[in-house]
């Protein structure tokens, strides 16, 4: 069964007297344990699509069905609840709470999920161990390197055991080497059976995915399966 | 999600945010500190005044009437009108005493103001009240030592005196006042009694603690002419139910004694404790309203400060709110977080304000002004600060809860 089912969605913004079609007409399905990259130049509508996929926003038209639930008709709190349970976000700018340590940042989604006390701490610690930060739990974001911060964000995304991981340019603020480390982490997560949606404009990042959806002018230009290709590392490609 | 769980987590998050912004939080609370401190001080001061007034007026006795040329508590009669009334004389008193049937005790009194000396020690501006032996029966006064003067002493105008506890303290710090000779306005009087402390603050010079009683004829003899000095007739009713009847009778008798025609207005006043209460409530009521308006204003300014800073805080933490919403915080969670933050800031301010009020009341208490901060004041401070916090935090918190997660995340 598909996790995500999108049929003819459109997002239209009113800018002054003009209508801007950020998404014109997009339909796609994403199944369990897929690794999808969404690509496109700026203005192609990929951020809008990501916001809708991530239940941060709802489409103006069309149907968005998430695990059998009609997301397109949900109110803010229902969306918040879906995001909390089903979606793990990894952002370009990490988006960690600056004043809280790594552990609290990872605990946060569990707080909103109503998980209390010892269980919450245990699960957050386990998530941080999984991303290799067992010894950095009490560090605040500004005491961590960029790569470590992104690992905290990944741990936060994984801690609720969501249906999809939604990563928006996860390597955009990292150097190439660290970026590759993070992508390797995503590969592991994918291999463990998770579903990953990666939004990027870097070809070499997108090539980690098994399926690439290319957007242009609010429409899907190309949706291709790329299987078992040899993925060159950055140093080799130069 | 469980409400208590949300509340607990909300409080923890709020405390963290407050700790992270210590300096600003302290500045923010200043308004609340001042507001709560003034409310608490105000209410305890009023309570203190109330209490000492009650005690003071109680010494007047609820069964007592005071027939006088002057209205004590009634502001309706013009001052010059009272001044032009004939003085009440000893003859008036004698006639009244003869005719009045209902009172259980009647005595005259007439006062003067003198310096009292004993040896090297002296006290100035003491009210000397001249009266007769029946006076003690018109009051509830009790003795520390000795007795009131007798009928014989009173009628023959002996130089004897009964002194209040304050005067004893000042003239006889080591006790032993009885049978000593004190000098009142240069005239020797023998102390025959010392009154027990009545402990009233509000009555000032009229406080029995600070009075000296001597036989009334001595007042006329030594301290002024009986022809211009007016006499007060102290009347005691058998019980408080009889007060009105006694008053009725007294009015009738006094009109006869003063020779008033049926269409003439009373040229005397019948004063009673109730009048004191009425006057007090009227005046203190105004003070109370003014006081609470001013302190309310202080709190209001404090609340606006909190609201202002919370708006700034919401703006500054837009990104944080975006993150929280993205990972699943609902509207009411964000609402609760910011309201509880405001409430905690206010509560901390309120507790500091309470501390300030307690210190303030200790300082004020040094000046013999009766204030004590009690449990009521603590409850008042906590309630007021919490309410202020919730009210002033609501608008900013609501703004925060309505933020769109996409916009909020994009905010730098």
Please, could you describe this protein's structure?
The complex is a heterodimer of chains A (about 240) and B (about 400). Helices cover about 35% and strands about 30% of the residues of chain A. Chain A has a six-stranded mixed β-sheet with strand order 6-7-8-3-9-10, sandwiched between helices. In chain A, strands 2-1-4-5 form a four-stranded antiparallel β-sheet, covered by helices on one side. The model of chain A has no long low-confidence stretch (mean pLDDT about 90). Chain A has one domain (about 35-50, about 85-235): Rossmann fold. Chain A has helices at about 45-55, 75-85, 100-115, 115-130, 145-160, 175-190, 205, 235, and strands spanning about 1-15, 20-30, 35-40, 60-65, 70, 85-90, 165-170, 195-200, 210-215, 220-225. The relative contact order of chain A is 0.19. Chain A is an alpha/beta fold and about 240 residues long. Helices cover about 55% and strands about 15% of the residues of chain B. The radius of gyration of chain B is 32 Å and the shape is elongated. A six-stranded mixed beta barrel of chain B has the order 2-3-8-5-7-6. The relative contact order of chain B is 0.18. The mean pLDDT of chain B is about 85. Chain B has helices at about 5-20, 20-60, 80-85, 90-100, 150-155, 165-170, 215-220, 245-255, 275-315, 320-325, 330-365, 375-400, 405-410, and strands at about 65-70, 105-120, 120-130, 145, 160-165, 180-185, 185-195, 210-215, 230-235, 270. Chain B has 13 helices and ten strands. By secondary structure, chain B is an alpha+beta fold. The chains are: A alpha/beta (about 240), B alpha+beta (about 400). The interface of A and B includes residues 84 and 112 of A.
Give the spatial strand order of the biggest sheet of chain A: 6-7-8-3-9-10
The CATH architecture of chain A can be given as: 3-Layer(aba) Sandwich
Tally of structural domains of chain B: 2
Which shape of chain A, going by the Cα principal axes?
Answer: globular
How many strand segments of chain A? 10
| Number of separate helices of chain A | 8
Helix-strand sequence of chain A? EEEHEEHEHHHEHEHEEH
State the distance separating the first and last CA atoms of chain B.
Answer: 31 Å
CATH topology of chain A: Rossmann fold
Total number of beta strands of chain B: 10
């Amino acid at each position: 069964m598909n996790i995500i089912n999108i049929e003819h969605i459109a997002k239209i913004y009113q800018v002054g007297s003009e209508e801007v079609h950020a998404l014109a007409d997009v339909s796609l399905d994403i199944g369990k344990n897929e690794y999808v990259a969404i690509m496109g130049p700026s203005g192609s509508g990929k951020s809008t699509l990501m916001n809708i996929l991530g239940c941060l926003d709802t489409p103006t038209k069309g149907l968005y069905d998430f695990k059998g639930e009609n997301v397109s008709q949900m109110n803010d709190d229902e969306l918040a609840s879906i995001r909390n349970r089903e979606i793990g976000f990894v952002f370009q700018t990490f988006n960690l709470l600056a004043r809280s340590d790594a552990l609290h940042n990872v605990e946060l989604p569990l707080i909103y999920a109503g998980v209390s006390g010892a269980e919450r701490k245990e699960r957050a610690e386990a998530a941080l161990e999984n991303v290799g930060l067992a010894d950095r739990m009490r560090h605040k974001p500004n005491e961590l390197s960029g790569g470590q911060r992104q690992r905290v964000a990944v741990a936060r995304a994984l801690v609720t055991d969501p249906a999809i991981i939604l990563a928006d340019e996860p390597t955009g603020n990292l150097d190439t080497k660290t970026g590759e480390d993070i992508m390797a982490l995503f590969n592991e997560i994918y291999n463990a059976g998770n579903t990953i949606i990666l939004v990027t404009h870097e070809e070499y990042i997108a090539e980690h995915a098994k399926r690439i959806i290319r957007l242009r002018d609010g429409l899907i230009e190309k949706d291709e399966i790329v299987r078992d290709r040899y993925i060159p590392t950055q140093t080799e490609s130069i | 999600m469980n409400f208590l769980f949300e509340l607990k987590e909300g409080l923890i998050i709020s405390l963290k945010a407050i700790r992270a912004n210590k300096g600003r939080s302290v500045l923010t609370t200043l308004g609340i500190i001042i507001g709560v401190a003034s409310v608490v001080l105000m209410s305890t001061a009023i309570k203190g005044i109330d209490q000492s007034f009650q005690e003071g007026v109680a010494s007047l006795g609820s069964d007592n009437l005071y027939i006088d040329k002057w209205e004590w508590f009634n502001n309706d009669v013009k001052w010059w009108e009272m001044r032009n009334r004939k003085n009440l004389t000893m003859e008036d008193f004698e006639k009244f005493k003869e005719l009045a049937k209902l009172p259980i005790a009647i005595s005259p009194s007439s006062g003067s103001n003198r310096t009292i000396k004993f040896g090297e020690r002296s006290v100035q501006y003491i009210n000397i009240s001249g009266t007769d032996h029946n006076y003690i029966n018109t009051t509830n006064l009790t003795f520390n030592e000795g007795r009131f003067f007798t009928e014989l002493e009173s009628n023959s105008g002996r130089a004897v005196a009964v002194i209040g506890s304050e005067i004893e303290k000042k003239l006889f710090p080591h006790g032993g006042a009885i049978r000593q000779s004190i000098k009142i306005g240069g005239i020797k009087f023998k102390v025959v009694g010392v009154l027990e402390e009545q402990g009233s603050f509000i009555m000032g010079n009229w406080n029995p603690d600070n009075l000296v009683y001597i036989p009334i004829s001595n007042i006329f003899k030594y301290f002024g002419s009986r022809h211009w000095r007016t006499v007060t007739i102290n009347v005691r009713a058998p019980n408080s139910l009889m007060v009105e009847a006694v008053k009725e009778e007294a009015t009738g008798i006094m009109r006869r004694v003063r020779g008033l025609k049926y269409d003439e207005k009373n040229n005397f006043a019948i004063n009673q404790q109730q009048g004191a209460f009425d006057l007090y409530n009227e005046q203190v009521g105004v003070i109370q309203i003014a006081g609470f308006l001013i302190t309310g204003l202080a709190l209001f300014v404090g609340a606006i400060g909190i609201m202002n800073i919370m708006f700034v805080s919401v703006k500054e933490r837009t990104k944080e709110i975006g993150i929280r919403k993205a990972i699943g915080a609902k509207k009411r969670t964000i609402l609760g977080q910011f309201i509880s933050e405001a409430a905690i800031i206010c509560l901390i301010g309120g507790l500091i304000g309470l501390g300030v009020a307690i210190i303030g009341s200790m300082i004020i208490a040094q000046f013999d002004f009766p204030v004590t901060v009690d449990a009521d004041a603590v409850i008042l401070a906590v309630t007021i600060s919490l309410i202020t916090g919730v009210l002033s935090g609501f608008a900013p918190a609501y703004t925060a809860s309505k933020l769109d997660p996409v916009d909020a995340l994009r905010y730098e």
